Amino acid sequence: MAHPPGALPVPLRAESPMAGLDRRNLGPLQVFAQSVSGAAPSAAMAAAPAVAAVTAGQAVLWSFVVATCLALLIGLCIGQFTRRMAAAGSLYSLTAKGLGPVPAFMCGWALLTGYGLLAMAALVGAGSYLQDLLRRVGVPPGWPLLAGLVLLLGLLATVLVLRGVRLSAQVVLVVEAVAITLLLVVFGLLLARIGPWAGSAPFAPDEGIGGIAAGVLPAIGGFVGFEAAASFGVEARRPFQTVPRAVQWTAGLCGVLYLVAAYTQVIGLQGLPGKLAGQPEPVSTLAQLQRMPWLSVLLDVGIAASFFACTMATGGALVRVLLSMGREGIVPRRFGATHPRYRTPHVAILVALPVATLVPVVLLAAGVPWTRLFVVLLNVAVFGYLIAYLLVCVAAPVFLHRIGELTRGAVAASAVSVPVLLVAVVAFTVSGSGDGYPLMFALLAAAGLVWFAWVRLRRADRLPAIGIYDETSAADLFDGHR
Amino acid sequence: MSPPAESAPLSGRQPKAVRNALAVLEEVIAAGPGVTAKEISAALKLPPATTYRLLNLLVAEGYLVRLPDLRGFALGRRAGRLTVPAAARPPAAARAVVERLRQRVRWGVHLASYHSGRLTMIDTDPDHPPTGAAVLARFPHASALGKLLLADQPDWRAAVPELRRFTVHTVTDPARLAREVADVAQRQLARQCGELHPDRGCLAVPIHDVASGALVAGLAVSGPAERVAGPNVELVELLTEHAGQLAPLLA
């Protein structure tokens, strides 16, 4: 060796700062399942095309093509980090390595909002679809039933996430596989009945390019959460391969699923007044139309399963961000603790997941209708995600430049995705102005600022610590290179 | 998402990629720990994008690691498997200690080295020959000396390419093996009863470097499986005592 032992340019820690987690124990399929469940494609297959069709009209397919390309580009930017570092803090820790602590803090706040509210929305969604199923067997619906179901599912998710990452990842994998299979059966049967080819109508931009562009926004909503695997870097067996692939493959898989779903709904409903955009429950209407009303039972089961898997994957990502913040000292240190036997961040789980369960329960009990609650939670969550995606896409080329590995491809991915995301954030805010969303976003931003000011005032010394990940420790090195 | 099991021969640019990967590995060794991707690319006159891809691949496979600054590279633990283990004869003083133990017990006594993370027999009992060295090195899950090695690994799964079943007693369930490995790490004693051969068993204790505390060797006694299963308090005491005498002799 040219260097004598001990000539390392950087001191190595004796132990990884992420010690305590169940390191290197998740297979590729389990990691993939986290990302897929985070995006909850089954639920989006049923709902997103109709929402996008309101502006994009029959040409909604193109909106999904654009959204898929955007998701793949975002995945590329995230992959620049996840191929090089295994983190538990998801985009928060990644952003720190590119842009430093302050933008990372912003990203962390956006991500906590996104993960937290998406977990709540998914719980409400799972509960309401279960309630629909129960109604079919004669159980009268109502807020007490729904709140009870949400409470039950939230408790179940908490226990599963707590009892070990392998167990929860396995449950997520199985539940998500069931959900996607059911949805594919539903759409396969519908497509077979309608006749797979129905002219070029779905490909003609009847509402113009502007309509398609506006339709991209709800289409992106269907991909949100696809980065969830980035929280399981420490626990993945081969993180540098598995995590970037899981994120990219999820973007691709969701894109294909949404195109199938959008195509089926467009051609199946083009004979109705208002077409796809006029349907509040497009897939159920389609099933009625094709005289297969029982399909909506499969649909309900699939969507409920998808939402539950989403709760677990998103909740798992949420607590790992909190774990990273706890170890950095940004939130109370106790959040950084891991359970000696389950090897999960038990304190973060036992705080965050019950909160994510109780907030919707209380709101339901206070008389907020579940559809309104679900839509608001989802929209605010999407806003958080968009901010986090924007920051990580800005951070990717900066990070690569910092470590001296910048490539043209990485710059291009960032140069395309950043402006598109910026437009998406602005459009998302403006389009929701009638429903008071800009005010909610402003309040959230203000809350984030207050938190930041507090950290700056009381824990300024902790800020530089932001961005911990599973560093190479002495034990990972070949003897001769220590 | 594991790489597809291709049996097709190397084609197109693959031979070149393999050569480049090996060149990158060589360059990291030549330049020493901390070398950056840019430096490697310049030294090998490889296109930067190619270099970065190869580096990421080698890091993903564990042959290289990224240092905490995320810029520099060094050899990873797995690179140790590329070297031929130095099966150096232990010093005379160490052999004398092993021989003394052989005089005191009626079991086979063997000494193994764990140099560069691999099990190598360095002093085997001529009267009780152990299982072939290659089998012991390849299947650490089935021997007491192998389990000592696994217990010392940060990720023991990476060191067990295949959980092959030798007898009905071989531990092939990963979860059970995980418990056993954790138990070995805690008790500093490994046991194997009929897991490699139905009627033979082994007890082994680790020998740690006096200065660094790193695992350097293992001392084992082998005998009939049913005898190994017992508590063997005195035998274990004797074994530990001799291991303690060996520690300063095996640097």
UniProtKB/TrEMBL annotation, chain A:
GO terms for cellular component: plasma membrane. It is found in: Cell membrane. InterPro entries: AA/rel_permease1, APC_superfamily. Keywords: Cell membrane, Membrane, Transmembrane, Transmembrane helix. Its main location: membrane. Pfam families: AA_permease_2. This is Amino acid permease.
UniProtKB/TrEMBL annotation, chain B:
Transmembrane segments: none annotated. It comes from the Bacteria. The lineage of its organism: Bacteria, Bacillati, Actinomycetota, Actinomycetes, Pseudonocardiales. One of its GO terms (molecular function) is DNA-binding transcription factor activity. This is IclR family transcriptional regulator. It comes from Prauserella muralis. It holds the Pfam family IclR_C. GO terms for biological process: negative regulation of DNA-templated transcription. Keywords: DNA-binding, Transcription, Transcription regulation.
